[in-house]
Amino acid sequence: MSTGNAKVAGIASKPRKPEVGGILPGLLEWLSRNGYSVVVDPETAPYAPGCEVLSRDQMGQRDLRFVIVLGGDGTLLSAGRAVAKAGIPLLGINLGSLGFLTEVILEDLYPALDAMERNGCEVHMRSMLECEVMRQGETVFRHDALNDIVLGKGTIARLNHCDVYIDQVFVSSYQADSLIVSTPTGSTAYSLAAGGPILMPEVEAFVITPVSAHSLTHRPLVVQDTSEIEIVAKTDDEAYLSIDGQIGIPALDGDIIRCRKSKDTVRLLHFKGSFFDVLRTKLKWGQR
Amino acid sequence: MSTGNAKVAGIASKPRKPEVGGILPGLLEWLSRNGYSVVVDPETAPYAPGCEVLSRDQMGQRDLRFVIVLGGDGTLLSAGRAVAKAGIPLLGINLGSLGFLTEVILEDLYPALDAMERNGCEVHMRSMLECEVMRQGETVFRHDALNDIVLGKGTIARLNHCDVYIDQVFVSSYQADSLIVSTPTGSTAYSLAAGGPILMPEVEAFVITPVSAHSLTHRPLVVQDTSEIEIVAKTDDEAYLSIDGQIGIPALDGDIIRCRKSKDTVRLLHFKGSFFDVLRTKLKWGQR
Amino acid sequence: MSTGNAKVAGIASKPRKPEVGGILPGLLEWLSRNGYSVVVDPETAPYAPGCEVLSRDQMGQRDLRFVIVLGGDGTLLSAGRAVAKAGIPLLGINLGSLGFLTEVILEDLYPALDAMERNGCEVHMRSMLECEVMRQGETVFRHDALNDIVLGKGTIARLNHCDVYIDQVFVSSYQADSLIVSTPTGSTAYSLAAGGPILMPEVEAFVITPVSAHSLTHRPLVVQDTSEIEIVAKTDDEAYLSIDGQIGIPALDGDIIRCRKSKDTVRLLHFKGSFFDVLRTKLKWGQR
Amino acid sequence: MSTGNAKVAGIASKPRKPEVGGILPGLLEWLSRNGYSVVVDPETAPYAPGCEVLSRDQMGQRDLRFVIVLGGDGTLLSAGRAVAKAGIPLLGINLGSLGFLTEVILEDLYPALDAMERNGCEVHMRSMLECEVMRQGETVFRHDALNDIVLGKGTIARLNHCDVYIDQVFVSSYQADSLIVSTPTGSTAYSLAAGGPILMPEVEAFVITPVSAHSLTHRPLVVQDTSEIEIVAKTDDEAYLSIDGQIGIPALDGDIIRCRKSKDTVRLLHFKGSFFDVLRTKLKWGQR
């Protein structure tokens, strides 16, 4: 974590969650008592009068000790991408059901904070994918993804065509609703719903998962994360590229979507339990 | 088939298929020699000078002995829906690779026609789904589907929510990219790519197949075809309803998509081989 | 149900379930109060001193008004096959978690019995498969299955080869761990675990589901239940045929396993809730 | 490869393959011309009179420059395990259809040998799994697997129970027909048929794939290859452990099957084409 003298903490919240209002007074009190000044994102601001308000991206340019995320996995994806470059760790507090990323439940908020303050939290490193879109020789889009990069079909057309290359070697043409390139973190999200495997977070690989591939033998493909994956869009009309299901741009015929391991890493503060505890709870393993 | 005196045949072709130009002279000659007058759709018209031109829907209002479809399964889906009400049988000639519906290959065109003329072709009946969209108590859309009815997500939103009822009984809420309601005919098309089973054409059932369902235990559900399936769209912004992947309308929050067996049936003239011959060839069963 | 004068009820229980001992006194009291004499199977006998003891097969030869099954789906499968020929309905009481077949939970035992006595229970008909094994022209085995007929590999050999025919028409050769032929009832059991679809109980069809098919395009196949399915075993050494996972015989090379709809039907007394209530509860639909 | 002076080559063949007889004269001639003396396995011996005969394991104790495998993937699995410890590379020549491991087709035999002799073949490293079975505190079995380690059910029992731990952390209990632990190499074999992903050979991971898991949410799990995977067998009667589908022992209740990366590596001589060329050809990607 940071070595600066001033202890500053960030708070990022899920929009339209009145529960945040109930949590903030106690949380601000804990932070103050432990010597932190606090910056908050615009979603948190209404519940934190007097705190400096920063966008999540601006938080990533400040020397924060950590960012507390109040919400669900979606909020953490957004905040995580924003502060990864600065190496700021995140503590994800789930306001609803358990999340894969926001794995601290509300009743463990203060035990987790206390543990963190005693350096009692492990920091789990989560790799990201960097996505760069080349159009007619120029980079027209570049973004990091913590979960996945998805090239999807537009509304009407059924099939999205694309060619995939790994380290310049042709893999296959795909006809599918979508093609997902997922990190290990994203392997429990959209890729899983589309039939992909679960990758333990430490696995140094990505997984390419087609959704409803026309060719029934097109199965998820696990690729080492030192590889560069290139997807060439072949589309008559509309296709769409999205990052973590949150950010997106239309993709055009001939666009090259280049995916490689990001040089930045998301740091998650881990309080207790194992990755498998979350899987067993979320997926109800062994309960049928 | 028709009992009228005048023997009239229809021809419907896939657009932008120059091969049609090579086939038409011989085909028109065969039809003339066998006493047929000919009507053609606009796609065929450039290759059939002098023939009466009708839309496919107009063909469905004429007393045709049969319609010859030159193209692929997409062309047959469109022509099949158009002439089903009139009970006109179709002979599907595949211009490319073998199709599930256009199962006569080009070199069998005249043997198939000769067999048909001798009443040597079986007529295979294919059930259709009728789709009716209710919006605020009014029917705003109604169409038959030979393959499938698909409620899909829009471009950006990842998840399509809907509730499904069968014969007024609540089945489940679904979060998925799409929800497919497929006929047996459609079970080898999009539903198969999405993980659905293959239904033999004679099975009196439909199959509801979710695409990338968020809940991993949402599996394809086979429902007797006397049932009424209702899908209630729950969407913040855009959803899309499509018929056979060819016709579609935007779906709004609260729309009720009512699916039941159509009273009309598509009649396919069958020349030779079995349903399983097509499956084995198309899916390359047993070749790995 | 029976039209005889004497009201006789049967009770069949899951082995080694001490809970049965706690249920029997009250149950026998209810039956006596409502004018029933009682026969019990050997598993129930220790808890029902003085009652006539019959095997489940013998129950099927008596004029019983109904059989109460105390246990899980396995117990009901066995009792169901035994009394189907006689048309005796069964009331399945689940001693553990909810079952697909034993859908009455223990606390609903007396409400269900009261409803039944007032003719307030629907009777749900469940089709069965008849399995006949032909070896060198002779029938060497014949049995009904309520869930499924499975041709499986032996212990060592990885792949089970077989050829499948439907109504004498060749479908495909299969290389797989097992081949399952399932009723709609069995579609929520082993076939589901192997990737098969869920068939609503009323669907007049069976499903052929391969387990770990070598050919990735071999998908579950839904077949109308008027068809005869023949499986020809092709095995160098050991294969194994099992009925509902409960009864089995070794299968030899060249054996023809003939599957068709049984002329008998299992009658399940249904108390409350829908098939989908059970699915949603058992499969935890919509809970992720 | 070896630095010894004497150039010795090995030949291992698939049993009962008369084609081997047609290949050997030319192959022995080529080897002699290039200065190799030759040792052969017992399956090759009938076609190589005068050559020293060694078991495959004995080949692994000699200073061979390489082993030529004539057969299919099964033969290469066996020979590969035998000579891995000695670091001897293998050249796999497929006598039938293309294999994932025996990727040189017969007509490329001499071009491949010529390339190898000019050091023109890449050597592809394939990781193996070491499997150790602990029973009541003692190691009762230990073997390397190039494809997979499978804990399977016996003949009659439907469900195999086991508990899985990764690096001492509990993952889940499984009820399934089998549990597969596969290398990247094995990911295109049994694991693929059971629904597992394809791992590129370079991925430093293993995949745990259940076959027909009772819990529908038990999906393939990709684990970094520095982890130790432990499977605890829980079985009333019979279970079976197999290595590459070729070697096996019965497993007893309480047996701990410990899987970790083997310190040995199989070296495959690669002639031409890419891993994806093989996938596209074998799986017929893009051909539907």
Shape of chain A: elongated
Broad CATH class of the largest domain in chain A:
Mainly Beta
Structural class of chain A: alpha/beta
CATH topology type of the largest domain in chain A: Tumour Suppressor Smad4
Query: CATH-wise, what's the superfamily of the largest domain in chain A?
Result: Probable inorganic polyphosphate/atp-NAD kinase, domain 2
Secondary-structure element series of chain A: EHEEHEHEEHEEEEEEHEEEEEEEH
- Please report the total strand number of chain A as a whole number: 19
Largest sheet of chain A: 12 strands, mixed
Per DSSP, what share of the residues of chain A sits in E-state strands of 2 or more residues? 35-45%
- Number of helical segments with 4 or more residues of chain A: 6
Total domain count of chain A: 2
Q: What do you see in this structure?
A:
- Four copies of one chain form a homotetramer.
- Chain A is built from six helices and 19 strands.
- The first copy, chain A, is an alpha/beta fold and 288 residues long.
- In chain A, strands 1, 2, 3, 4, 5, 6, 7, 8, 10, 11, 16 and 19 form a twelve-stranded mixed sheet that branches.
- In chain A, β17 and β18 form a beta hairpin.
- Chains in contact: A-B, A-C, A-D, B-C, B-D, C-D.
- The interface between B and D is small, with 8 and 8 residues.
Topology (SSEs and partners):
4 copies of one chain form a homotetramer.
Chain A: E1 8-13, H1 19-33, E2 37-40, E3 52-53, H2 56-59, E4 66-71, H3 73-84, E5 89-94, E6 104-105, H4 109-117, E7 122-135, E8 138-145, E9 148-153, E10 160-166, E11 169-176, E12 178-182, H5 190-193, E13 198-199, E14 205-211, E15 221-224, E16 229-234, E17 239-243, E18 247-251, E19 256-270, H6 275-283
Parallel strand pairs in A: 1-2, 1-4, 2-3, 4-5, 5-6, 5-19
Antiparallel strand pairs in A: 7-8, 7-19, 9-12, 9-17, 10-11, 10-16, 12-14, 14-15, 16-19, 17-18
